[in-house]
Amino acid sequence: MSESGDQRAAVHPIQGGQRRLSRLILTGFMGAGKSTVGASLAHSTGWRFLDLDTCIETDCSRSVAEIFREHGEAYFRGKERELLQQMRSEDQAILALGGGTIEDPLVLKDLLDWEDTCIVFLDAPLKELLGRMNPASRSRPLLTTPEELEARHRRRLPLYRAAHITVVTTGLPPRDVAAKVLRDIRKVWRIEERGKSDDGKL
Ligand code: S3P
After folding, report:
1. How far is CA 136 from the centre of its chain?
2. Which residue's CA is minimally distant from atom 12 of ligand 1?
């Protein structure tokens, strides 16, 4: 079973000091809370929330599970890449990736090159992530056996860890995770809430 290591949020330095943040990207494995935390962050900041899975579903008029079933994973990954490029110019936006979006190292490298963008890895031990997921859920086509999930998680961990900031979410409700994300981001970035300048509070 993979462990998440350091229980404190690890903050990697981003060059530029108190630069104005334009986009906040959430990454992490299935069950990490990207969508709920993203919605909470959007609520706190007034920023627009974009969930990549939902955007793909709207674009394809199909659920993620249907896209996997009818077209396969490679097609879905292509859609992820295509829609991500459309989001590159969004300002004051919170973007929740799918758990596998960064599995293509080229996608990750590209995201790390986005200007004024902070990528946050929502980290938790796999055991907790599995506990948060409904094993009977038909909406997650890659919710397979625990062994396969463990291998997938292990494979992806180094990619998630390339994010600018890692926030350990173990045992925390989404609202507290969102507060922690904002606290860590503000050590480096300036977040202007819509219609006002940053006051440093959630
Ligand atoms: C996937 C995770 C899902 C969704 C698709 C593939 C993955 O998103 O994009 O089922 O490869 O881990 P969530 O992480 O939001 O469940």
Report:
1. 23
2. 99
